[in-house]
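Data deposition worksheet. Section B asks for the primary sequence of the deposited chain exactly as it was used as input, without tags or linkers unless they were present during the calculation. Section C holds the resulting structure in token form. Section D is free text for depositor observations; keep each observation to a single sentence. Incomplete worksheets are returned to the depositor.
Section A, Depositor: J.P.
Section B:
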Amino acid sequence: MLKGEARRAAILAEARRALLDVGYSRVSLRRIAQALGISLGNLQYYFPTKDSLIAAVIVQETERAAAFLREIAWDPKAPEGCIREAVEALLRYYAGPAGRFYAIAEFLALDDPRYARLKAEGYGDLRSDTGRLVAVMAPHLDAARCAGLARVLIALIDGAALQLQTADGNTEAGRVDAMIDDVSRAMLKLLESWE
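Section C:
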């Protein structure tokens, strides 16, 4: 990794950590620069504002989650296993710090048009990717129905991710396993019944 790329990655990692540790309102470029032992000017070379930095972290997190879906070998002959694999990968990821970050990003999107725009862009890509996967798993559906089902499936994952983070911080393995089972079954039923 080039020096600039390594510095950028370190800044993003520290911003993510700070956001989780102290929350959005207390994150500052100065705090992040101090934690990394670099000057504020050096940090601002990569990210001129707090918003540009937090936006980059949100984009990075969205790309990580989408990567789970791309890694699955989607087989229309084995929908149950494919769906289970996707749900398990995403919900185990969201049961940890990524889920807390996701919840913070969701609330930022409710309050700030810049973050809402980022969310819309990320969801556009995710809906498109999920729609293509639905088309593989349910070839009898037309493109509009695939897109509709993709929105519903994404909503199930979103809701489960938020539930994992808001239930008194209880992300113990048994609770996560039960959520994976429930969401997987619901998705499979939706896929089977969607006309």
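Section D:
The chain has two domains: 1-48, 56-193.
DSSP finds nine helices and no strands in the chain.
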